[in-house]
Every structure is written in structure tokens, then in C-alpha cells.
Amino acid sequence: MTMEPLDPFCVTRRHFLSSAALGLGALGLSHLLGTTVEARADASPGRGEGLPGLPHFPPKAKRIIYLFQSGGPAQQDLFDYKPLLREKHGEPLPDHVRGNQRLTGMSANQAVLPLAGSVFAFARHGQSGAWVSELLPHIARHVDDICFIKSMWTEAINHDPAITFFQTGSQIAGRPSFGAWVSYGLGSMNANLPAFVVLVTAGQADQPLYARLWGNGFLDSRFQGVQFRSGKEPVLYLTNPAGISAQGRRAMLDTLKALNRAQYQKALDPEIEARIAQYEMAYRMQTSVPEVMDLSKEPDAVFEMYGPEARKPGTFAANCLLARRLAERGVRFIQLYHQGWDHHGDLPGGIRYQAQRTDQPTAALLRDLKQRGLLDETLVIWGGEFGRTSYSQGKLTQDNYGRDHHPRCFTIWLAGAGVRAGMTYGQTDPYGYNIVDAEGNPITPSKDAFTPGAVHVHDLQATILHLLGIDHTRLTYRYQGRDYRLTDVHGHVVRDILA
């Protein structure tokens, strides 16, 4: 191996090791860059195939559409039918039901925790007989395509750590997001669009969302989510300024690439390569993004299916339609955020309003994917960061009450590639406060060992990665001397929900 002469004024550890004989440089560089032995990658920017050796086994799902309902939807008013709450409406929550579970500061000092039964009618639907509230008549028609998990649980009791936990596998900010991990491991299926796209419902004032929720953390920056917005500029700073032609932009990028390559040869900083890749992606997106965001050629019947707000850019309905278009074009991870489910008060009106905005578009997305043959290879996920209490936060009245945060048990659902359709997994006690087994006995779930009937956040993440053909214990990245992964040191695949 021939050593290149080193610039005496620009000698770095990376440069020295990469130039050393007998492969010492390659070994040292792989350690410094933070890749694991198994996931040691072809680090060339813009590659679409992901890490060598991935997927670990044949995947059931090619892509993810994650409909994140920020704020914590009340499971008792949507999917988890609890007639006992109606019978005992206004009575105090029994001490033996609550046990030693902590409460938030918003209801911990209440003199009484009055049970609040749902005012909404429930009915069984489909051949599976799944219970669904009258608030969701459109989703109710698709229950035989859905796998409900009614025994989700989390450790986080407040919004920021709870959302961060679902999106990054840690309650502490700074880790790579779910979509970033998938993009890092599997790469892109379309060189002209990002592997990871984020859509946020416009005009929703509620718990804040942060770009770090779809960030790359300590992974290469090219794996972060790219937010598409409504309006004339879907991706900020993508369009050419006035007076700059496409030919001029191309010439500028070629010159910039040459300068960056020269700097990379000196510094061997992988972020320089990532910067080159991002510039090139942005150039290609100048054509691909306007095309995918242009809904003008969609038939009227499609807009009618997604509902009256589908023609209004930035709405949840329009974003669901965009999600289908992105899925058709090979985007690997499509994340929708819809705020507005944080109902500490203003019930039942608040949840009725959110259901009206999201029910029809969600059902339309399932139907649209299915009729186009995409649902068999697309995993759709619906859910928030935790559930809501069965008791009322604050004063319980006939027409206005609230529900506090409840991490102990709540409902999410999955549909599409690789999951058992028409299934309900897990159950809660008659009060909707704790997870119980098939015989109705309370379960004390643990994140350290799989608890049949209960699904921890890391279990869900491990299961989703499994459907993508990834062993969650093997998708790791070495950072600051430690191997990190999405599921930290926990997580078990919930095999009972797999088709």
C-alpha cells in the first residue's frame, strides 16, 4: 500500500491512520467514524442500498407511513370500550385500581379522581368484531385490515419525553430518530427524493413539535428527515434565487463539490461527504419535489375519498394524500404529525373535532393503498405518545371535563405489510387503567423481559424493524465508545401480531 505524502500543516489522526500501511488506517478510521464491525459501510454519499448485509432477512414491509397523533388520544373515547366507566360515572377511582402509579402535577392534588365514562356510543364492526367509537365511522369500516394493540405502555408521563421516546427510543433528546435509523440501515429507494420525509399538519396549536424528533442525532446528517411544507416552497431554500438559472446552479455545485473533495482529502471528515450528498439531493429535488407535491392531476374521486379538506394544502387530509404519493415514489419512511389530542379539558368537544379532521383521511389512505396494491408492502401506524386517564382532570360536568396523561395502557394500531389483520392484541381492566391477561388478572409489565400481552415502546420499535427485515439488536452505531441502537438495550419482537 503506497502512502500519500502528508501536508505537514494538516495532519489529523484520521489522515495518518488512513495512510498507514497494512490496513491499519482502515481499521482505525472505521473506529473513529463510529461504525460497528457488522455495519461498516460503503461511506460514499448518495448510495441507495443501505448498509451491507441489510436487510438481515426478507422483509414484509418496504416502507412505513407513521400517522403520529401528538398529544395522546383518549383510548376510552375511541377504541377501548369500557361500559363500567359509564355505570360508575362520577364515582372515585378505586385505590386498588390506581395502586402506586404516579400522577402528573395537573391532577395529583385533586381531592377526588372521579371516573368519566365516554359519552360516545360504541359498536362492533367487521368480521373481527372490533369495538370502535361512533367518532370514527370511516376507520370502523377498515377494522378487518387493522391490528389493534390495546396494551401499549410507556415510562414517560409528560409530552416531550414521551414523544421523544417514541420517535428516538430515548426520553432524552439527542438520539437519531426512527426514520433516520431506517434510512441509515436500508437506504433510499428513489435517488431523487429523501428516504425520510416529514409532513406536519399546519395551523394546529398544541404541544410543540421539534425538528429533533426527525433529526439524525449522531448519525450522518443525510439521514435526517426532510420536512415538506405546504405553500409555494415545500422545502425551504430549495428553489433558485432570482437570477440564478439551473445551468448556473449546476456549475456552482460542481465547483463546490471539487472544493469539498479537496477538503475531504485533507480532513477526512465524513460530514464533508454528507454535505456533498445533500447538495446533490437538493439539486435533484428541485424537479422531483414540485412533481410529487402537485395534486392537480389527482381525480375528483380521490379528493372526495380523502374528505373536504383534502384540497387544502397542509391539512391532515392533504398530507395523507401526499403520503400515498410519496409511497408510490419509493420514499422509505413517511412521518405525519397531527397535533391537537391533548385534552385536559374541553371534552367531549375537543376529541370530536380531532376525530372529524382525521377519521376520513386515515381510512382513505388505507383504502387508497389497498386498491393500488401498496398496502401489502406498506406498514401504516396510528397512535400517540401515551393514553388518557379514566378519571376526569378537574371538575366533572355533564358537558365539559378533561382527561390527564396516562402511560400505563393505551391503544395504537397497525395495518398492512406483515401484521395480522382483524386482530386485537392485549386488553385492559374494566376501568381501562391497567393491562390484564386473558383471564383478567393484572399484569405488571417490564421493559427488561418480554411480558406477553403487554407492548412496551421498545417492543413496538423492535417489531416494526423486524417487519422491515432488520434485527433490532444488530442495527447499531458506535458513538463515543458505545454501541447505540434504536431500542437501547431492550425490546422484543411481538410475534403474536405478525402475519
Overview of this protein structure:
The chain is of the alpha/beta class and 499 residues long. The protein has two domains: 1-33, no CATH class; 45-497, no CATH class. It contains 13 helices and 17 strands. It has helices at residues 13-19, 24-33, 83-87, 95-98, 137-140, 159-168, 178-186, 246-267, 270-293, 300-306, 316-328, 349-371, 457-467, and strands at residues 63-69, 122-125, 130-133, 146-153, 196-200, 226-228, 333-338, 378-383, 387-392, 403-406, 410-416, 423-425, 427-428, 435-436, 455-456, 477-479, 482-484. Strands 1, 4, 5, 6, 7, 8, 11, 12 and 15 form a nine-stranded mixed sheet that branches. The chain has a two-stranded antiparallel ribbon with strand order 2-3. Helix 8 packs antiparallel against helix 9.
Give the CA-CA distance, first to last residue: 51 Å
Number of helices: 13
- Structural class by secondary-structure content: alpha/beta
Which value, in Å, is the CA radius of gyration? 24 Å
Q: State the helicity in percent bands.
A: 25-40%
Count of discrete structural domains: 2
Q: What is the 3D form?
A: globular
pLDDT < 50 stretches:
1-11, 16-47
> What share of residues are in beta strands?
15-25%
Count of distinct strands:
17
N-to-C SSE string, H for helix and E for strand: HHEHHEEHEHHEEHHHHEHEEEEEEEEHEE
Give the mean pLDDT: 89
Largest sheet: 9 strands, mixed
Element layout with pairings:
Elements: H1 13-19, H2 24-33, E1 63-69, H3 83-87, H4 95-98, E2 122-125, E3 130-133, H5 137-140, E4 146-153, H6 159-168, H7 178-186, E5 196-200, E6 226-228, H8 246-267, H9 270-293, H10 300-306, H11 316-328, E7 333-338, H12 349-371, E8 378-383, E9 387-392, E10 403-406, E11 410-416, E12 423-425, E13 427-428, E14 435-436, E15 455-456, H13 457-467, E16 477-479, E17 482-484
Parallel strand pairs: 1-7, 1-8, 4-12, 4-15, 5-6, 5-7
Antiparallel strand pairs: 2-3, 4-11, 8-11, 9-10, 13-14, 16-17
Helix pairs in contact: 1-2, 8-9, 11-12
